[in-house]
Amino acid sequence: SMDFIRNRPKDKPFLCYLPISKPHPAYYAEEDFYNAIRPDLLPPRIAAPGADARLPSVLDALRAEYRSQDITEDMWRDIKRIYYAMCAKVDDLFGKVVDALVEQGIYDDTLIVFFSDHGDFTGDYSLPEKAHSTLQDCLLRVPLVIKSPRDVPAKQGLRGHLAELVDVPATLYDLL
After folding, report:
1. 40 dihedral zone (left: phi>0; alpha: psi -120 to 50; beta)
2. What's the chain look like in SS3?
3. Per-residue pLDDT tens over the stretch 5-40
4. Bond preceding residue 23 cis, omega within 30 of 0
5. Cβ–Cβ < 8 Å for 120, 143
6. Distances, alpha carbon 143 to alpha carbons 58, 63, 148, in Å
7. pLDDT tens track for 81-108
């Protein structure tokens, strides 16, 4: 992507779509990113709820399949640490793409959309990864960052609203 940005035709607009497969199982992180995550600062794990929580039974089936009862707290913490390390790598790579835009003098004129399709449990609810039939916050609260070009009026700030990927095309059409 950085090479694409640096070598793009200078007389035409361009689109660079960069699908990054991490963070995603299988969990793996390079040592420098892994060591950058302090386990003592990770958020505590949300325990598996009791039957009175009335969550989909598929979660119980997944816990049985993953043998969650055999996973220690240290192992759960390491799963979360590796997941955060994978996120840190994505942040680092994205920063390099932004640096290439700045280096080329086109950052202010560029529309950037950064998003994820889902989060993972990373030990919450005694599960290691996402499930398709449930809607816990750890699966839903993922990044959606939109930076409009300098000449496009936009209200800056953080939002706590629910958005879906289906909302992204309509937003892009409005911006374009």
Report:
1. alpha
2. CHHHHHHCCCCCCCCCCCCCCCCCCCCCCCHHHHHHCCHHHCCCCCCCCCHHHCCCHHHHHHHHHHCHHHCCHHHHHHHHHHHHHHHHHHHHHHHHHHHHHHHCCCHHHCCEEEECCCCCCCCHHHCCCCCCCCCCHHHHCCCEEEECCCCCCCCCCCCCCCCCCCHHHHHHHHHC
3. 999 999 999 999 988 888 888 889 999 999 999 999
4. yes
5. no
6. 26, 27, 16
7. 999 999 999 999 999 999 999 999 999 9
Backbone angles phi, psi at 80, to 5 degrees: -65, -40
Residues in the chain: 176
Q: Is 149 exposed, middle or buried (0-12, 13-18, 19+ CB in 10 A)?
A: middle
Residue 155's pLDDT band, with cuts at 50, 70 and 90, is confident
Q: What letter represents residue 105's amino acid?
A: G
How many C-beta atoms lie closer than 10 Å to residue 121's C-beta? Answer: 26
Q: Which residue has the tokens 């939002």?
A: 159
Please state, in angstroms and rounded to a whole number, the distance separating the CA atoms of residues 78 and 123.
9
